[in-house]
Each structure stands twice: as structure tokens, then as C-alpha cells.
């Protein structure tokens, strides 16, 4: 199994439909609910706006506490948001 597929399986197996912060290094932190992780791309939904993150750029991710609201943690030229 390719390494990227292993990461995709881990993400979908443990975090699908859960709110997370995703750290990609530097100031790149993305927040949202994981909706999908296929073709080496993680899809986050943050209040109806979608962020797509390359799995191989993810350094770490962690769940957000149940009572916390989901808001964007940072803005980066490295991601695209779609309504």
C-alpha cells in the first residue's frame, strides 16, 4: 500500500466527519470538519466553505473539543476555499 493511501485510510478511519485543526507548517493551520480524504486531498468544511489540503503537506492534525466552534485559524495562499 502506498504511504499516501495509508494516511488517507488513517484520516478517514479516525477523523471522518469530525472537527479538526490541520497543521501544514509555518502559519498554515486549517480548521473544519473532515468531509473526505481521497486522491491525496483532504476536504474540510468550515461553515459551508470548503478547503482542500494535499495530504502530503500535512504535518499534524488534532480534534477540536466538542464545545468549540469552527472558525478559520489562518489564511494562506496555499489553499482554495469554495462556496
Task: From the structure above, extract its key features.
MM0924_fam; DUF6897; SH3 type barrels; disordered C terminus; alpha+beta; single chain; 6-stranded antiparallel beta sheet
Can you describe this structure in just a few lines?
The protein is α+β, with helices and mostly antiparallel strands and 83 residues long.
Could you explain how this protein is built, in words?
The chain is 16% helix and 40% strand. With 83 residues, it is α+β, with helices and mostly antiparallel strands. It has one domain (3-68): SH3 type barrels. A six-stranded antiparallel β-sheet has the order 5-1-2-3-4-6. Residues 67-83 have low confidence and may be disordered.
Architecture blueprint of SSEs:
Layout: H1 3-15, E1 19-23, E2 29-38, E3 41-46, E4 49-54, E5 60-63, E6 81-82
Antiparallel strand pairs: 1-2, 1-5, 2-3, 3-4, 4-6
Pfam family, one: DUF6897
